[in-house]
Amino acid sequence: MASIWKGSLTFGLVHVPVEMKPAVRADQIHFRQLHSEDLSPIKYERVCQADGSPVPWSEIVKGYEYEKGKYVVLTDDDFKKAALDTSKTIDIIDFVREDEIDPRFFETPYYLVPSKGGDKPYALLREAMRQSNVVGVGKVIIRRTQHLAGVRVVGQALVIELMRFANELVDIGEYSFPGSDALREQELTMATQLVQNLAEPFDASRYTDDYRSNLMKLIRTKMKGKKVTATEPMDNEDEDSKVLDLMSRLQASLAEGRAAKGAGGGKKRVAKTPRAAGTRSRQKKTA
Asked: Are 136 and 95 a contacting pair, CB within 8 Å?
């Protein structure tokens, strides 16, 4: 893949020549809006809200709304004056323990790949960070935009994750969350047992996008000219609207988890969720 950015990773007086390359890829199914009569793609026009007429790009400016309906217009020169000087360095400011960083700060990961002559200092920094169990936190300018960034070790790679600044996080105090005072000790004990029964080492391959898979199956079926038949969902509205007792759900889930383990000869298996157990019982009644 092409490099997003080229420069040096710096800490103290050490410079490590690196290139930034994508670490994730979009895997979404994209659709175009079409005219139903002839399947022609639909275009969008830039329309003035005042008179409803189309507006060419040459008459469009950027404005900051400081009050409802009041704007300050910024020109290209204004943006140039505010822009930071182009930098070719990722400047690590601090090394901090990984568990001290709130995961809400992390946004987009990229691989840092060593450039020519950078193999040894790259490996040296990686192993020093691995042994110290730290993340390097610093700043980088990409396409004239400054980003907070974290550099961490993932296997043999250094991965830089663009981060959010503190002002981009919504204060947790803006929402209301339940306390633990109303929990009964027996409920907490059983819930803890259920969590421990479902505990497994993380394996990303176990988790797939079922909706995407269904869409692709449907698309391939229609490409072959076959008719798509939909399965009618069960009407669970009445059952789902009932308030189920928490202890009953926990007991049923634990019992099902133990049964699954016994059937597997002691091998840990993922127990079904309480909702799935209820759905299965309803299916038996329906049948």
From this structure: yes
Q: Cβ atoms within 10 A of the Cβ of 236, count?
A: 12
Residues with Cβ within 8 Å of 157's Cβ and at least 6 positions away in sequence, in order, are 111, 112, 113, 126
Cβ burial of 125 (10 Å; 0-12, 13-18, 19+) is buried
| Both structure tokens of 281 | 């019982």
Please list the residues that pair with 142 across neighbouring strands. 145
Question: Where would I find the H helices in the chain?
Answer: 76-82, 119-132, 185-198, 210-223, 237-240, 246-263, 274-286
Count of beta carbons in the 10 Å neighbourhood of residue 189: 11
Which regions of the chain carry the CATH code 2.40.290.10? 5-25+83-168
83-99 b/e with 16+ CB inside 10 Å = b? eeeebeebebeebeeee
Q: What is the pLDDT of residues 34-59, one digit of tens each?
A: 888 888 998 888 899 888 898 998 99
Q: Which overall architecture, per CATH, does domain 5-25+83-168 show?
A: Beta Barrel (2.40)
Q: What is the pLDDT of residues 135-180, one digit of tens each?
A: 999 999 888 788 999 999 999 999 999 999 999 888 888 888 888 8
pTM of the model: 0.61
